[in-house]
Amino acid sequence: MAGQKHLQNKGKSGKKTANQRLVFECFELASQNRIEELLDLFADDVTIYEPFSKKEEGLHGKPAVRSFLNMMTLASDDNLRYDISIVEDKSDKVIVLVVFEKGDKIEARFSFEMAGSKEKDKKIRVVRVEFLDDNHS
To answer: Against a cut of 0.70, is the pTM above it?
Structure first.
């Protein structure tokens, strides 16, 4: 059985925006290890800045991102739970706080920058991941 996931939009009620739906879909597909479908959410020239690879220029392009996502899914399992809270939602950027729990709790800030102005054309262009504890930076 999959771990528990909880998605919330802090301070707002009602429908999710197109950006929020894209971000939530990203986490849902990642939790299900559906890498190819997840990659479809990203722009071809996507860049991910994350603390694990220690590359200041980030991981650029879908092939590099695919390798990163494959490694991340190997590290996760069904016991991982997470809560996602929307902190900021602008037309071209969404910031979420995610609390991951598998025994210990780890909090991370994800910033998603979007490309495309219409909902059907929206893609994730840049992702910045920042862990808010000292053990993962």
So the answer is: yes
- 50-89 burial, b at 16+ Cβ within 10 Å, e below that, comes to beeeeeeebbeebebbbeebeeebeeeeeebbbbbebeeb
Contact 137, 112 (CB under 8 A): no
Model confidence over 79-132: pLDDT tens digits?
778 889 999 999 899 999 999 887 888 899 999 999 987 777 899 999 999 999
Contact 130, 49 (CB under 8 A): no
Assign residue 5 a region (left: φ > 0; alpha: ψ between -120 and 50; beta: otherwise). beta
Q: What stretch of H or E contains 104? A: strand 104-115
